[in-house]
Amino acid sequence: MKASLNLGSISGIKIIVHWTFLFLILWVVFDELKRGGTVESILFNIAFVLAVFFCVVLHELGHALTAKRFGVNTEKITLLPIGGMASLDKIPESPKQELLVVIAGPLVNVVIAILLYLILPIQELANMNFANNLETFSNLSLQNFLLYLFIVNVGLVIFNIIPAFPMDGGRILRALLAMKIDRVKATQIAASIGQFMAIIFLLVGLLYNPFLVFIALFIFLGAYGENKMVLHLSLLKGHTVEDAMMTNITIFKPEDSMDLVVDKIISGTENNFVIIKDSTITGLLYHQDIIENSNKNLLVKDIMEVNFKVLDVDEDLKEVYNLIQSKKKSFFPVVENKKFVGAIDSINLNEYIMLQSKLAY
Ligand code: ZN
Q: Is 336 a known active-site residue?
């Protein structure tokens, strides 16, 4: 399900609410009803959740706007029931820049907490016994609203500095380590600690809080994925498309029958094909489109994709790796001096990474 709500954009960064966010609101309503809440208390709690997520957006903007200063764009900020996520185009490789980008998030919550601290009579409230004044603290007053918002912001700062990579604290740890040791090694250490923290979160979550279970899964998989990505990118450093591309590939003409293509798929291992007419690349045939149209009596030109990206042999493989990760149909023809010389896809790039990793150890 792809449904999400676009709230607009700030400095070219889209603010998106994921559809699962609705569950959080429903959960708040349900929880209040269970405790015998009134319409007023339900609205108070919904408003509070929205205020918390407003602070989360500001936190993510802290990351995104700092990244922008280092020339890194952010496509969007997504709000999930477990928190916010800024989709940066890339993470700055300089440890100092990464550190500043990461710290900017929790720093926003520190500022919010300080502002609320200045507004609220914290000293007076701290002297009151919470248990004896339960009624005062459960009033649906603006003061309580702001007090709880203060507590949540302090909580967000503490939670975010736990070194659970790829959460903020883990990224701070990675950046600090990367100032002393190799970035790949630094990421491995941070990711291992992150996965260990995720297991603790999972255990605590199973006992006390289902949200923590989701956060644990998110951290565990995130640490695994990002550790792998950093390793792959380091293996591809200094390599170009020419090193990894396939050169022994089958070419079709636009007028060829699709039966010929289907025969080729069955008899060989190639899945995607380049279509050439008069020495010009005119289209691509993707595996999925071939399968979907295999029972129709068609020609290659009827189903070939005519909008596609062409890579140059000299292009940086690190850039191609990011490109392949971001595209669903990841098959690209390669040219040298505008002449077709080969193609590259995710399977073949992964093979190349595997071979490089054997050489690296
Ligand atoms: Zn953050």
A: no
Tell me what the mean pLDDT of segment 85-90 comes to.
Answer: 85
> What's the pLDDT tens digit per position in 285-326?
998 888 888 777 888 888 898 898 999 989 988 888 888 877
Token pair for 184: 């790949």
Task: Write down the catalytic residue from 32, 40, 60, 124.
Answer: 60
Residue of 299, 301, 297 whose CA lies nearest to 276:
301
Q: pTM value?
A: 0.77
Identify the CA nearest to 178 among candidates 91, 256, 278, 258.
91
Measured in Å, residue 106 CA sits from the centre of ligand 1 at 6
DSSP string across 90-155 = ---SSHHHHHHHHHHHHHHHHHHHHHHHHHTTHHHHHHS-TTTTHHHHTS--HHHHHHHHHHHHHH
